[in-house]
Write the structure tokens for this entry.
Amino acid sequence: MVDIPYEGTRGIPPAEVPDVELYHPRSWWTRYVFSQDAKVIAIQYSLTASAIGLVALVLSWLMRLQLGFPGTFSFIDANQYLQFITMHGMIMVIYLLTALFLGGFGNYLIPLMVGARDMVFPYVNMLSYWVYLLAVLVLASTFFVPGGPTGAGWTLYPPQAILSGTPGQDWGIILMMSSLILFIIGFTMGGLNYVVTVLQARTRGMTLMRLPLTVWGIFTATVMALLAFPALFVASVMLLLDRLLGTSFFMPALVEMGTLSKYGGGSPLLFQHLFWFFGHPEVYIVALPAFGIVSDLISTHARKNIFGYRMMVWAIVAIGALSFIVWAHHMYVSGMFPQFGYFFATTTLIIAIPTAIKVYNWVLTLWRGDIHLRVPMLFALGFIITFVNGGLTGLFLGNVVVDVPLSDTMFVVAHFHMVMGVAPIMVVLGAIYHWYPKVTGRMLNDALGKFHFWVTFLGAYLIFFPMHYLGLLGVPRRYFELGDTTFIPSSAHSLNAFISVVALTVGFSQLVFLFNLAWSLFKGEASGGNPWRATTLEWQTPETPPGHGNWGKELPVVYRWAYDYSVPGAAEDFIPQNQPPRATQHVQGAAS
Amino acid sequence: MSAIILFLAVLAVIAGWWLSQQRLTAKPWLEEGPAGDFPGGDAVSWPAAKVGLGVFLAVASALFVLFISAYSMRMNLMDWRALPVPRLLWLNTGVLVLSSVALHWSYLAARRYDTEGVMIGLLAGGASAVIFLAGQLLAWQQLDAAGYYVTSNPANSFFYLLTAVHGLHLAGGLVALGRTSTKMWRGAEIADMRLSVELCAIYWHFMLLVWLVLLGLLTGWTDDFVNICRQLLS
């Protein structure tokens, strides 16, 4: 074993960016509030999304109280229950998950990971956040308007969404549509930034195939969102016009409260097509960033290069493309032309192939890795298991004949909570534990983190596994109370009570996490710049937390891919992306 | 939904072509060293703002194509009564063509470093765009006076909706055009303004294209065209 210096290539001079190109804040206001720095915007996005997400969490407690103990809580009536369901779903899917993954993690990680000083259009990026905040405020305001928020269900299907009898018919639905339209405008501003930054602002040496998978995931998800959200925009505008002006884009002729309504001839099915043309890609808009982030967490904490990097990239792109031609698997029972179902069932099953490739690659990355069961890794492992579980029931529901009897039962609720509720949240939490040291310079408390993980992970299974069984029994979703029904045994009611107790417990355990976030900010152990000994560029910044402009005077130059962990013969078990080859010590014969 | 699927297929071909230039089959774990050693994978040589506009145009196109998808699905239902397109629209179309030509002229002038030409082009383009928007409002008024209200038929609703969405996009473009013109007016160097003028011109050509497609749709020509294609295929 002889160490020989690697004599390959001389380092190329770093790319310097003239100072004038950067925007410089001049006051406290422009530094922390109306900031154009992507890192500050990321934190603003994350805090806003988490705040409104906590509202949605409380709504889920109220729903569970009603479902577990019907008739006990007089402050929840049937209308409110429908309003809670609607707001919980809409907030969690769009205002929390989409905003957190793309606006939060996207803003923080893209410029750092590709070696840029900031997003390419910082002003537009700032506008994006403020329009998003406005959308959230408009949404939250529906709790205080006469009639309260809309209770149409998060899918907002016409005709019921805008008819009297549905709660929130006065103001709730109008403000909901307005809020969605604002969200989409705000997102488009941010999305342009994420895409163009990845395309144009990569530092020298950062080829596409050297990008960390986190960036690939966020990039592809953003492209999808930019193309899918317009469908929701179109649907929202047209439904808003149906409600406000009385047009009949979606509204058929019907009798409302005993009188013939002003509507006629419209097609509710048209709305469903538009909604799900957005709605299905939305699942992957949330999932792809999670896929990317989890790949990086696993590779870092298993000290092993990601298995099949190329295949992972191709799978991300393939999933992104395929997800646009599966939307009608949400509509098997909608009354659309029945033979469409076979086409969409086929495409739905095909999308399982690239998804399964990703799962195999994660598992093979773990195989014979040097696995450190630190909190981010625990959450990453939790994600893989949960995603597989949720994905398998997706195969059930993707088939027309199985879906038809299971439609509108708790089985569907259990399925989508596993696959796009619990699984992405696992990644969000894991990612927070992973990158918190970079954002604040301090570690989160490990013991509290482990407690948080186990309660959340086991709790999620205690909540959603029994829910599959309830669905198989035929317990319908969206029902305020079940009453005396012959096909629902009394054991189902006690199971419901059990689920509610666990849900409240898991919900309250999140307070431990919030405490950890706040406490560690001041009292946490100092982390240093690279506590996980990771390779990607964000861990190589001269300052932690990274200063304005990220990189000091010179931009980093990238010499290698993002996954040089445990390279045989290297001095350390990781080689940062910006380390020139000649500085690496190789053992003869081991490097090839 | 066939319109949007077709549109996405076109985008997928473009994205696929671009990705094929990016060496996605490279084995990055074997390629240690500066990127210069390995061909491909550089950023596009266009300025970021131009790429940004390109991405935005793709998003805006998706929006319009989705409206068109909804239009084509809704028009097959029973209650659809096509409305007579006001003659004024032809005049408006002419004005919008002029607007686009003027901005292109401005762009060509910018390439020649002809400040006066740029100014004249920008002003003429902006003014004719404003005239176009006023003409569209006038067309609305004529329809309204003739009893074609927004709610009386889905064809009417779509007419008002599509023209409004197009008009709003053009109005947004006018904001950018206004900023560019103001900077020129204040004596900015033409070398600094070339890109802005070019982006305005691109956006105007795009809005003209969208308008021509919408006009084809509203007058029913697209319908005839699709029918002819169907007959040829079957």
In short: Chain A has one domain: 40-253+263-583. The two ends of chain A are 15 Å apart (CA to CA). The beta strands of chain A are 3-5, 255-256, 259-260, 585-587. Residues 271 and 371 of chain A are 48 Å apart (CA to CA).
